[in-house]
Each structure stands twice: as C-alpha cells, then as structure tokens.
Amino acid sequence: MKKTRLKKYAELIVKMGINVQKGQDVIINCGLDQPEFVKMVVDYCYKFGARKVTVDWYYQPLDKLHNRYCSIKTLASVEKWQLEKWQHRVDTLPAILFIDSDNPDGLKGINEEKSAKARMKSYPLIKPFRDAMENKYQWCIAAVPGKEWAKKIFPNLSTAKAMEKLWEAILYTARVDEDPIKAWELHNKDLADRCAYLNSLHLKNLYYKSNNGTNFRVGLLPNALFMGGEEVTLDRNIHFNPNIPSEECFTSPRKGDIEGVVYASKPLSYNGQLIENFWFKFENGRVTEVHAEKGEEVLRHMVKMDDGASMLGEVALIPYKSPISDLNILFYNTLFDENASCHLALGTGFTNAIKDFEKYTNEELHEMGINESMIHVDFMIGNKDLSIVGETMSGEKIQIFKDGNWAF
Amino acid sequence: MKKTRLKKYAELIVKMGINVQKGQDVIINCGLDQPEFVKMVVDYCYKFGARKVTVDWYYQPLDKLHNRYCSIKTLASVEKWQLEKWQHRVDTLPAILFIDSDNPDGLKGINEEKSAKARMKSYPLIKPFRDAMENKYQWCIAAVPGKEWAKKIFPNLSTAKAMEKLWEAILYTARVDEDPIKAWELHNKDLADRCAYLNSLHLKNLYYKSNNGTNFRVGLLPNALFMGGEEVTLDRNIHFNPNIPSEECFTSPRKGDIEGVVYASKPLSYNGQLIENFWFKFENGRVTEVHAEKGEEVLRHMVKMDDGASMLGEVALIPYKSPISDLNILFYNTLFDENASCHLALGTGFTNAIKDFEKYTNEELHEMGINESMIHVDFMIGNKDLSIVGETMSGEKIQIFKDGNWAF
C-alpha cells in the first residue's frame, strides 16, 4: 500500500474520526499488526495539537492464555490504580481511538462462561466512569489489516496478497481517495438528509419481512431520532465520526416493544468467536429463543450478560446495495459487515438518540425506553428481499425498504 | 529458529530469570518485535503459577514523536493513577521482566536536553516507590531480536538472515542448549566461586592500565562484596538471575574515590542513541572531562542528570576471552557488550553489594559510600592488553587481570 494513501487515511481518522482538539489527550487502543500506520496516526494527533498521545497496545492471543489460567476473580479484578485511571479519563475527556485488526475467531475455544462471568463482575465497577463520560468525548473505531483476519477473508491468497487486498477494501470503504475529508463532508451531509426524512415520518413501528423467515416488529420511541454519520459531544460541541466506515441511519427502539422472529444474514464475530447461521425469537421485547448452527453457546451467554442483554438497543437501516456491500466481501467484522446490511444490536441503546437528550439525566433517558446493558452487539439481518414497512403515529403505512434497498 | 529451542529459552527466562512464584503477579515490558515468543513466556509464567501476567508493550519509534511534540512538563508528568500503579507494585511485589529488542540508535537525533530534563523532573516522584521495592522483587533483563537491531549488527545480511543470526547469538550467549537450566546452575556456581576468591583478597584499590590510554584507580569499600550470577530477594529469599546472559563479577566502588583517565573500548547505546570512541577523566571520584567522537552531547547531558550521575556505581570484571566475546560480535547493546568486556557504570550503585545489607537502611548504605543516582549506565573498557592490579588492605599488590584476562 502506498504510503501517501495510508497517510491520507491516518489524517482522516484523526481529523474526521476523533477530531483531536488543541491541548487534548488522545488514547489509541490497537493490536500489534500495523505499528508503522499507528505511528502515522500518532504523528497527525500531535500535528492537530494533541497534548499527549498514549498507545495501549494489545495482543489478542494473550487473552486466550489469561482466560485459560486466571481465576474469574483475577480476570474480574479492577485495582485501585485502574479506577484512578478511569477517573483521570472522566476528568480530562481524552479522544479515544480504537484501531481494530483482530482475528475474527482469534479467541475460538475459550471458556466463554468464565469470560462472561468475569466481565459481569468487573462491569459494575467501571460503569460509573463510563456513565460520567457518556456523550462527552470523541471516539472512533477504524480498522487496519491483521494477517489472520486477512487470511480469514481471503483464504486462497498468500498472506501478503490477502493483506494488500484487505488494505484496498478498508481504504475503499473509508472513502480514502483524492480528498477523503471532502468526501466525508459530503457523505455526512447525505446521511443527515436521509435521517431528516426518516424523522419527518414520525414512525412508531417498523415491520420487517424476508423469505429467510424474518418476520417481526420493532416499536420506536416518539422522541427518538434517526442519526447517521458524524456526532457531536455534549458541552464542547466537537464533531466526530464514531465509525469509519459508516453507512447507516440508526436509532434506539422502544425497550420491551419487539415481537417476532429475526434471522441473521451474516456471521457475527463476538469477543473473538464466530457465530454462524443464527436466529432469535423476541416476545415482549425480549429474546426468548436462541438458535445458532455454530457458536450457540456463546450467543446464549451473551443474552444473559445482564437484564438488558436480551433486548434491543439499536435499529439500523442500510441498503443492500451500498459501497461496502458492492465489494461483495464478507469481512467477519462488525464495523464493515454492519455497514453493508440492515442490522440490529442487542444491549445498550443510544441515549443521545433522544431529542434534546442533554436536558435529561441518564436515568431519565433509560426510563423513557432506551435500553441499558453492559453489551452492545450488532448483528446483520439485511438481505436482497428484505421489506421494511413503517407505521406512522397516525397509523399510515409507508414502505421504507423494498427488495433490500431504500423504497424512497 | 526452532520452536523447541525458543521454548527452552522462554522457560529459562521464567524459571531462572525471574523465577516466578506461585500466586505472584508478573509484568513484562517489551517491544513489538517477537509477540509469539512473548506469548511463550506468558504461558510459562502461568505454568509456574503466576496469578496474573501483564504485558506492557511499547514501540520505540513513538518515543521520538513524544520527544518532538510534547512539552517537558507533559513528558515529565506523572498522573495520580500512575503513582497508584507504583504503589500497587510496592504492595504486591510482582516479578518484572524486560525483553529488549530495541534499535541501538532508534532515538538518534532526539532533543536530548528535553529528554533529560523531563526524566530529571519525573524521577523524584517515582523514586520513593523504587526505593520501597529495592532488593525485594525478582527482575530480569533478557533480549530477543528486533529487525533494526539485527541489521545494525549484520548490515550485509538480508533482514531475515540477520534476524536468524541474532537469534543464534542470543541463544548461544544465554546457554540455550540441551539443558539450559542445568547449564545456568553450573554457571552460577562458577561465578560464585570466582567472587568468593575476589572477596577473600580484601582489596582496597584496583589499578587499570592499557595502551589505549586507560590509566586509573578505583577505590573499593571494605565491606562491599563482589557478586555475580544469581541474586536473592530480601524477606522472601527468592533466587533470580537479573541478567541473561551474565558473565560478570561486579561490585560497587567507593563513591568519590576514583582517579585518572578511562577509555571506552566499545560503543554505547544510551536511550536509543549511539555514543562512540569516548573517554572520561575522573578527579576525586567525579567525571571532570568528557570526550566522544560521536554522541558527546548525549554523554554531557548524561553525567549532569543529578549529583550521582558523574560518579561510578559499578566495577565489573569479565575476561576478554569469554563465551560472548568469542562470538566476536559487537551487539551495540549493553546486556551483551558489557558481558564481553570489563566495564564500569556511571550512576547508582548496588546497595546489596554491602555485606549484610539487609541490616541497614538505604540511607545508611549510601552513607557508607554506595553511589546514588537516577541513572545507571554501563560502559565497556576491557580490551586485549588491559591490566588490573589489586591492592589489598595490607598494601600487597596482586595481578587480577593480565592481557585482558583473569591473571589467576
């Protein structure tokens, strides 16, 4: 991959992704796969005025060892210094960047029950800090190729060729061309227009139907808005793009108001483990049946993580024909696959989907019907015959999706 | 490199290096060069009973960016959570492993003054914690090949061949053969015997002379012992080997009692910057002149880091003919080069060199004449015509080294 193109991508992430402010701290969380690219990103962070950039490197294969040898108590332990570190984040509100290159089934075979129990134990300790930061800082998830990931997508290519091809795909989906920043400004405008139209319909229900068996209804909140593309931090009003790429118009549905059966249309990599050919049945807004040809155990633990883990936090609309789906690549990575397909997410919803959310406390926003959970797991449901019909507050039915694509 | 041989090396580091205890935490500090080897080390740590193993990865090239863009204040800042993290180390006494693969001149061209000032500012904040841990935990420095380092040593080989050759050299010097653990038990015995003989002489002075211009005297402390190979932690009496490889018999000299001129016989990589062809003049135990053909600026900042930085903390004896020097490789890395050559170190001395050191406070040990500083920088002075004559308490002169090798 040409260095000039990679530099454009690094600049895009820093400028449009986390939009680093003068004097702000930056934390970068990433694997060991592309240190030279990470260096470019760090360089841009400083050029845009970052006070201090900290890179927290991690190596996914070690998580397998921790899972095997450590007790749940050890896995779940959060030391005093770690709580102080969270407090420091709350106090300084750094921009946080996640650069993903994980092997989609890098944690295959771990003891999922142990892992889930540990996460359940540690989550309450960290939650107060996460809550205190919510909607107040810029964050972004972007991706770079890792060898195992590239070989998973392109198993018949050499590692070098697979890596090259994955770089190509990542840069294409991230609109890294002549002028990526300009392209994202236009793209954000386009997503905003589409959301404005959806919001003008005042929908109270979405009815999903497909020949694959999907047949269900999602209830929407009267004061929840569809959002897409860039977001804005509270207080400091800093624009940022939480996902690169992003093609979705999404909102948070009404907690407890989902009925029917929904089939996944793509595999899901959850915590380094692949789940394939699965479906859920929802009753009174809650998952009551779980089936998967592969990874059912993982899925079962997932929906039991806490009270909100079996309810939906997100509904996202993406046409079957989109720049990412046109590539016709199964990425085995949510950041890409969710942007090539209508999807839902189990777990926590977006408090900032509520109109004028800044006027309410988090508790009030959750009481309004935004789901709350320690998990937020997107899964893909879009396919080429998906139909979505919206029902407005006044009972009018409007075709939103037809044959997998926007109907308007 | 064969996996079975690497596993032996990993086991050696964990068993003989840091000697991980059941239920103990381990911290590993390493670059990004050999993650698969690091994984083997983590696996052994757990197999030997570690409670939790934490790997702190770092990427040397980022330090150049931090140095360029951050203010001294930012570089020197130690946040409250970082102090808590140090306190946690003091409370739990984890074993700490450093796996070095740095490019010997990876930080060439950084603003050394800025770097030195930042270190001087942050050191006093961390010192109380370091003091509280001193001699109480196991630690070890070992090495693995990094690409830039390998190419620095073998510039005419391809990167792959240079890496292979550096692995060979590292494993050879670390005695990774049939039974490395047995080999280290024998080696430790040998070093202990040699130190016992040196200690039986009750030396008060060492006189160094070489045709390269070296001509100086080092005063020794009556109650300081020569040590070599394995050490033992205070309180818990855990044996460990702080350096792999290690060929030296060393002690801490009497602070303020060094006179004359000493020429370095090998280059020195200090903080990622190479210093070549240098010499020091000592008066009343303190460096009063510094000369270097390359890197003099770095050296000048180094000896001014604090009051103890211009005084000696270590005197180490290694024959010119030794397993490491027989390889005839200039490693540009202190861990290896110091073990192929008599050396000295500017900066802090070893409080545990004092007989029955556990009976004294750190303050008392420094008052006895052990130098104290934030730095400890070894530099090599051995060569093939080096003569060292020892003078005993009773004034008798004994040849210790002749023509670069042990005279006895």
Short characterization:
Two copies of one chain form a homodimer. Chain A has 408 residues and is α+β, with helices and mostly antiparallel strands. Chain A has 13 helices and 19 strands.
Task: Give keywords.
homodimer; alpha+beta; globular; four-stranded parallel beta sheet; 19 strands; 408 residues
Detailed description of the structure:
Two copies of one chain form a homodimer. Chain A is an alpha+beta fold and 408 residues long. Helix content of chain A is 35%, strand content 26%. Chain A has helices spanning 3-17, 35-47, 60-69, 72-76, 80-92, 112-133, 147-153, 159-173, 180-200, 296-303, 323-326, 334-337, 362-367; strands spanning 25-30, 52-57, 95-100, 139-143, 203-209, 215-220, 231-232, 239-240, 249-251, 253-263, 268-270, 273-283, 286-294, 312-317, 343-347, 376-380, 387-392, 397-402, 405-406. In chain A, the strands form four sheets. In chain A, strands 5, 6, 10, 11, 12, 13, 17, 18 and 19 form a nine-stranded antiparallel sheet that branches. In chain A, strands 2-1-3-4 form a four-stranded parallel sheet, with helices on one face. In chain A, strand 3 (95-100), helix 6 and strand 4 (139-143) form a beta-alpha-beta unit. The longest helix of chain A has 22 residues, at 112-133. Chain A is globular.
